Amino acid sequence: APKAPVASSLALASARPAWRQKDQPHTQKQFVFEKPSEVERRVPEAGVIDKPGVYELSKGPTGISRIHLIPGFIDSEQADWMFEQLLQDIPWGQRTHIRQEVSFEEPRLTSWYGELPYTYSRVTMQPNPNWHPLLTVLKERIEEFTGYTFNSLLCNLYRNEKDSVDWHSDSEPSLGKNPVIASLSFGATRTFEMRKKPSPEEDGDYTYVERLRIPLDHGTLLVMEGATQEDWQHRVPKEYHSRDERINLTFRIIYPESDGVWK
């Protein structure tokens, strides 16, 4: 019978496990520490709200922040003559503020209507119960549309692109909890900006908060309600391009003070 083939030493060596092969070079694994990459935080782009509707901005422990945008609440023809009448008849004045012992004038003109005083930024506007008839008509029309009742009005006149109002919330104690603000605009379109207040972990840093831009056209009504004043700020910034005059009427309800506590 034929003899069984004899395996060569090479074949046997190949069959051995690598750790048993004497001629296998000894290698040592090296561990390289790689620092975990940091998560890059990007400043979010501002959203734009320019279509009519009800928008839920946020929901948190304080409640739901909601706005209602109604372009053309006053039609263009009516808005034209209303704007001219309010521009001429309202007793516009410029308030002086004091910040860090330095006085400066507000970069806009204002006027107050209501039977109670209104204090904001340490400036008190005295009661003025003598409502202009057109303002009364507008108040009643907005009350009928929204279902809310208002007893006070802050009028703002932005004379040009240099007039503005800085970041703030309408959260004075006299406005009560979760105040409703109905804002009616006439004249030149200006951008109304909003930004969400940062969480406590952000330590007052507004860099990465959510932002919104809302163009307010001639005759547009914007209603802010719920926790909007608690959780959001708003402003009308200066602009780089020429702007004509703009009137903004902000209807609100002021509560009387009783024993030093706003009810």
Automatic annotation (TrEMBL):
Domain Fe2OG dioxygenase positions: 149-255
Q: Which cofactor does it need?
A: Fe(2+)
Lyase in keyword set: no
Gene Ontology CC terms: mitochondrion; nucleoplasm
| Molecular function terms, GO-annotated | broad specificity oxidative DNA demethylase activity; metal ion binding; mRNA N1-methyladenosine dioxygenase activity
Instruction: Tell me the function of this protein.
Output: Dioxygenase that mediates demethylation of DNA and RNA containing 1-methyladenosine (m1A). Repairs alkylated DNA containing 1-methyladenosine (m1A) and 3-methylcytosine (m3C) by oxidative demethylation. Has a strong preference for single-stranded DNA. Able to process alkylated m3C within double-stranded regions via its interaction with ASCC3, which promotes DNA unwinding to generate single-stranded substrate needed for ALKBH3. Can repair exocyclic 3,N4-ethenocytosine adducs in single-stranded DNA. Also acts on RNA.
Summary of subunit composition and partner proteins: Interacts with the ASCC complex composed of ASCC1, ASCC2 and ASCC3. Interacts directly with ASCC3, and is thereby recruited to the ASCC complex. Interacts with OTUD4; the interaction is direct. Interacts with USP7 and USP9X.
Protein name listed in UniProt: Alpha-ketoglutarate-dependent dioxygenase alkB homolog 3
Organism (species): Helopsaltes ochotensis
